[in-house]
Model the fold of this input.
Amino acid sequence: MTMTPPRQKVDRDEVFLEYTKSICPVCKTVIDAEVNVKDNKVFLRKRCAEHGKFEALLYGDAEMYFASMKYNKPGTYPLETQTEVKDGCPLDCGLCPEHKQHACLGIIEVNSGCNLDCPICFADSGHQPDGFSLTMDQVEAGLDAFVRSEGEPEVVMFSGGEPTIHPLILDFIKMAQDKGVHMVTLNTNGIRLAHDRNFVRQLAELKPTIYMQFDGFDPETHIKIRGRDLREAKQKALDNCAEFGLGVSLVAAIEKGLNEHELGDIIRFGIKHPAVKSVAYQPVTHSGRHVEFDPMQRLTNSDIIHGLVDQCSDWFKLSDFVPVPCCFPTCRSITYLLVEGDNVVPIPRLLDVDNYLDYVSNRVMPDMSVRGALEKLWSASAVPGGDGNTSSQLECATCGIDLPEALKDIADKSFMVVIQDFQDPYTLNVKALMKCCVEEITPDGRLIPFCAYNSVGYREEIREQLSGAFVPTIVPNATELQPILLTTKYGSKMFGQAANGGDEASDPSKHVPADATNIGKTLR
Done:
């Protein structure tokens, strides 16, 4: 008689971290989700009763993910919220009383029209006849809601579409300033700044911060992300800003396999250009219109940080980048540089940033008391027997920078680097969303967390209300969803039959439904 060997239990090849909520990327139904770690990467897995199982990469370095958790600090209550809790997160935005953070940054999209038709655009904007353009009354209503919520709002960003083509954009900027907003930023592709010097001159009188798209230097990068080679226009826009005294933040959308090799080139260029004060790197958010992608192979914040360290090893190491406490700590990391000539030193090497988190907690811009901390650090080092580094150690760390002299002009010699990963329908994690501090301000007075606005259906809902045109629910252009996607008139994707009219899109073998842990509600 042959003996059957006893069955052996097998260990899982992943570690379960947490249970959360997310949405189905196809129908946007709220569903259960779990976060797991495998091969030193963090993944989100979820199941929809109708559309099956989905999985996406959340963070490319699990060790950095865990290390960031110590930066998760208590949020701040807004002065008032705008909605009531009815269906639960993420369907009651916002802000609702259950949201865990106030609004550090408010975004007002003044139009949906644009002078470009970028292949990658989370707002699904372009040369479109059925869009919207906000009025003074609508913008004022949004600003007033922001002021009621924040008292003295820190930052308002005017965006679009392309806000510089709105005929009232200068009036909008002045209105925000008159209402006590500390900093007003203008999110732009830079085309008008390159070709309309009078407009730049008028902007300079108001002095907003320019938040300018800048994705790299290769012609292919421009063609695949913006649809046109804009290198000459970008350079001209920056030169005009420098001439008229406008500070610029370069904003790079980084897509895997497309332009991540240009991370170092972008910051080296930015530091040398007189108009540029900071660089923001944003892994492409797969909402709205974008190239086909694999959600398991996407770029995350940790990938950008590793890329910067690899491409600028003479400047950076991993510990120079610090998670920001105002949002969920895996959403945004920053570092500050002290720059003098060719010498570049990350400020975290000069002081223990962990001791100064109050300067950056619950705000999008740091308190300049960090300057005082640096001054104190230098002074203490010069005192025999004092705590901290010695003068010689600091001189070595600063690579020859005269630190006391540099501190006199720290506003001119400091440079900020930001890495910001926004969630999309594949990666939406309610745990992180509930602490979102970047809000979309709508004309009806809501402050909707930006990742919810782009992922759950709020963007489509608001655009439909403002334009009067039907707007379909947008679905990510993921490789695994290709058999069930149709292209919308805006260039984004929606759920539907195959483009050739065949039955391929409805073939269940192309995307097999799985048992669902729950069936939730949808916004639309």
